[in-house]
Design goal:
Strand order of the largest sheet: 16-17-18-15-14-19-20
Number of helices: 15
Largest sheet: 7 strands, mixed
Distance between the termini: 65 Å
Helix content: 25-40%
Structural class: alpha/beta
CATH superfamily of the largest domain: Aldehyde Dehydrogenase, Chain A, domain 1
Shape: globular
Strand content: 15-25%
CATH class of the largest domain: Alpha Beta
CATH topology of the largest domain: Aldehyde Dehydrogenase, Chain A, domain 1
Length: 488
C-alpha cells in the first residue's frame, strides 16, 4: 500500500474501501502553498470503477452499521472523537502544510471542533432513545411513534478549505443516523481525510461503514453522485458544481443538500462599538479570506465612514502575512496557484471597471499570498460586490439610514451569513430579522451552538445542517401506529 510522509507523519495515499486500503493506477499530486515547488504526495486518482467498488462496499457496510442501536453508534462516535483528540498535533500539522491555514487555528480550534462534531451527534442520537424515536403521542386508542430509519449509503463531498473540520461536520450526522458513507475530499487538500479514515478503522466502524474515495471531482465524484444505489448526497463547494450534482441527484430522486458559500455583509451603524466593529472587519482577512462565512461587504453608516476606514487601515496594516506554521502569522497563503489567479482576476476586472482600489490589489512576489485588499466599488452592481471572490478582498460602501443598510445587505444572490454592529437592542432585532441569511451575528462572529441549523438562501445553498436538522436529512421517517386492542 502506498504512503507519503509529511513532517514525520505517515499518510495513506489510497482509498479506504470496505475496510481495506487500495490504490489506483493513476495518481494526482498534492502540493503545499507554503512551498509549491515540492510535491507532498501522489494520491490515488479514483475513477468510475473505484466508485462502483466503493458504493458496493457501502451497501454492505450499511447493513452492518444500520443494525447498531443509537447508543452503540454513539459509543463508536465517541471513540473516534477521542482518537481525533489524541492525534490533534498530527492532523493539524498535516492540514496546515497541505492546505495552508494557520497552524495555531488548526490545533487550537478546528481539529478540536472535529472531535466535538462527533461527540455532539453521539449525544443527539442517545437522546432519541433505543429505537431512534423522533416523536410519540396517543390518539384514538392508538399509539403513534415516529422512527428515524437510516436512509442508506450517503455521499459526502467536502471543500478544500478547513477540510478536516468541515468533513467531520458533514460525516458525523450521516454516521449518527446509521448511514454508511462515501467520503470524497477535495483534491486540493486530500491528506487529512486519510488520517480521519485511519482513525475510523481504529475506532471500530464495521468494514464499509466509512469509505474514503480520493480523486478528481469531475471524475470519481461525478460517478459517486450518479450511482442509483446512493440514498443521500451532502455537498459543500461552488454553485457551479452543485448544479451538476443536483441534476444527478434529481435523476435518482435522491435528497441533496448543498452549502455553497456566501458574500456576507458586515453592517456597521454609527451607534456601534467602533473598536469592536473594526477588529471584526479586519479579521475577515484571516486565512486569506478563504472562509465562506466571511463578511466581505463592509457597509458603514455615512457619519462614521471616514473614522471607520482610518481605523480599519491601521488594523489591517497590523496583520502579518507569512508562514502558517509561525504563530506570529495572522494571514495564511492562498491554497493553490489557480485560486490565486482567480482572486487576481477579480481585482483586475474591478480595476478595469472603474472600481477604486483603496489598498492592496496585487499578488505578493515570492509567495502564495495576495495583498490585503479593500475596494470601493463604482456601483453596487459591480462584479466585485455581487460575486464571491473567496480571497482577502473586501468592498467598502456607505449607507444613509437603516432602510438603505438592509437593502444593500440583501442586494446579492447569496444569503449565507451577515454581521451587524449596533448599540441598540431594538435595531439588532429589527435588522437581524430583515436581513436574509442563514445565520446573523450581531456584535460577535463565529459563535454558534452545534445543534442550531446551518445553511443559506439563494446561491448560498439548499437544506440545513446542524443538530436534528442534519439528522433528519440523513434519515427516512416512519410512523408506527399500534392500536391498544380495543374495538375500533
Amino acid at each position: 500500500m502506498s504512503t507519503a510522509v509529511v513532517r514525520n507523519v505517515t499518510i495513506q495515499t489510497g482509498h479506504l474501501i470496505g475496510g481495506a486500503w487500495v490504490s489506483s493506477p493513476e495518481t494526482f499530486e498534492t502540493r503545499s502553498p507554503m512551498d509549491w515547488s515540492t510535491v507532498l504526495a501522489e494520491v490515488s486518482r479514483g475513477d468510475a470503477t473505484t466508485a462502483d467498488a466503493a458504493v458496493a462496499a457501502a451497501q454492505d457496510g450499511f447493513v452492518a452499521w444500520s443494525a447498531y442501536t443509537p447508543s452503540e453508534r454513539a459509543e463508536v462516535l465517541r471513540r473516534l472523537a477521542d482518537l481525533i483528540d489524541a492525534r490533534n498535533d498530527d492532523i493539524a500539522l498535516v492540514e496546515t502544510i497541505d492546505m495552508g491555514f494557520r497552524h495555531e487555528s488548526m490545533r487550537e480550534r478546528l481539529v478540536a471542533r472535529g472531535a466535538l462534531n462527533f461527540r455532539t451527534y453521539a449525544d443527539i442520537i442517545e437522546r432519541s432513545g433505543p429505537a431512534g424515536e423522533a416523536e410519540q403521542w396517543d390518539a384514538k386508542n392508538t399509539s403513534h411513534t415516529v422512527i428515524r430509519m437510516p436512509a442508506g449509503p450517503a455521499v459526502v463531498i467536502t471543500p478544500w478549505n478547513a477540510p478536516f473540520m468541515l468533513a467531520t461536520w458533514k460525516l458525523a450526522p450521516a454516521l449518527a443516523a446509521g448511514n454508511s458513507v462515501l467520503f470524497k475530499p477535495a483534491e486540493w487538500s486530500p491528506l487529512s481525510a486519510a488520517l480521519l479514515a485511519e482513525l475510523t478503522v481504529e475506532a471500530g466502524f464495521p468494514p464499509g461503514a466509512f469509505n474514503l474515495v480520493q480523486g478528481i471531482g469531475s471524475e470519481v465524484g461525478a460517478a459517486l453522485v450518479a450511482d442509483d444505489r446512493v440514498r443521500r448526497i451532502s455537498f459543500t463547494g461552488s454553485p457551479e458544481t452543485a448544479r451538476h450534482i443536483g441534476k444527478a441527484a434529481a435523476e435518482n430522486l435522491v435528497p441533496f443538500t448543498a452549502e455553497l458559500g456566501g458574500k456576507g455583509p458586515l453592517v456597521v451603524f454609527a451607534d456601534s462599538d467602533l473598536d469592536l466593529a473594526v477588529k471584526r472587519a479586519a479579521e475577515q482577512y484571516e486565512d486569506s479570506g478563504q472562509v465562506c462565512l466571511a463578511g466581505t461587504r463592509l457597509l458603514v453608516e455615512e457619519s462614521i465612514a471616514d473614522e471607520f476606514r482610518a481605523a480599519l487601515e491601521a488594523a489591517t496594516a497590523a496583520h502579518v502575512l507569512g508562514d502558517p506554521l509561525d504563530d506570529a502569522t495572522s494571514v495564511a497563503p492562498v491554497v493553490h496557484p489557480d485560486h490565486l489567479d482567480s482572486i487576481d482576476g477579480f481585482v483586475r476586472r474591478a480595476e478595469a471597471a472603474g472600481d477604486n482600489i483603496i489598498r492592496g490589489g496585487n499578488k505578493v512576489d515570492g509567495s502564495m499570498h495576495f495583498e490585503l485588499t479593500l475596494i470601493e466599488p463604482a456601483s453596487n452592481d459591480s462584479e466585485i460586490v455581487q460575486r464571491e471572490v473567496f480571497g482577502p478582498v473586501l468592498t467598502f460602501q456607505t449607507f444613509a439610514d437603516e432602510a438603505e443598510a438592509v437593502a444593500l445587505a440583501n442586494s446579492t444572490s447569496y444569503g449565507l451569513s451577515a454581521l451587524i454592529f449596533t448599540g441598540s437592542q431594538e435595531r439588532a432585532e429589527r435588522v437581524g430579522r430583515a436581513v436574509r441569511a442563514g445565520i446573523i451575528w450581531v456584535n460577535t462572529f463565529l459563535v454558534r451552538d452545534l445543534e442550531a441549523p446551518f445553511g443559506g438562501t439563494g446561491l448560498s445553498g439548499i437544506g440545513r445542517e446542524g443538530g436534528r436538522y442534519a439528522l433528519e436529512f440523513h434519515s427516512d421517517l416512519k410512523t408506527l401506529i399500534i392500536a391498544d386492542g380495543s374495538t375500533e
